[in-house]
């Protein structure tokens, strides 16, 4: 992933959605994972969505998406952002990386 330069070199920046898809089992551990992923959305609800993408669900039930993109573009794969918004979205995306989210609390399998 390229970083947005810290100086304004352009008034607009092309952005491709950042997302990860999950298939969550309907179990105690699956519900725990669901709750953890919902909390990530609280980092910046205007730019992080944890939702059920219909096109994923049609292929695989119990599928959910955690995506970073301005809410106004949440149904698009790409968007043109103004420079300051692009810098903000980059910071939000970085807060969702494994370096900032404690992935050790995510339940991986049942015992």
Quick synopsis:
By secondary structure, the protein is α+β, with helices and mostly antiparallel strands. Helix content is 28%, strand content 23%.
CATH fold-type name: Alpha-Beta Plaits
Quaternary state, please?
single chain
Find the count of extended strands (DSSP E, 2+ residues).
5
Main sheet summary: 3 strands, antiparallel
Strand content: 15-25%
Please tell me how large the radius of gyration is.
Answer: 15 Å
Structure class: alpha+beta
Residues in helices, as a percent range: 25-40%
Read across the widest sheet, the strand sequence of neighbours is 2-4-3
Q: SSE string, helix = H, strand = E? A: EEHEHEEH
CATH domain class name: Alpha Beta
The average pLDDT value, as a whole number, equals 81
Number of domains: 1
Count of helical regions: 3
């Amino acid at each position: 992933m390229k970083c947005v330069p810290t100086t304004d070199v352009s008034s607009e920046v092309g952005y491709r959605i950042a997302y990860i898809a999950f298939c969550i089992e309907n179990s105690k551990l699956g519900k725990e994972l669901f709750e953890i992923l919902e909390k990530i959305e609280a980092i910046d609800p205007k730019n992080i969505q944890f939702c059920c993408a219909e096109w994923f669900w049609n292929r695989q039930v119990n599928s959910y998406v955690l995506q970073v993109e301005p809410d106004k573009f949440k149904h698009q794969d790409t968007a043109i952002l103004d420079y300051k918004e692009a810098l903000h979205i980059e910071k939000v995306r970085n807060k969702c990386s494994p370096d900032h989210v404690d992935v050790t609390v995510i339940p991986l399998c049942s015992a």
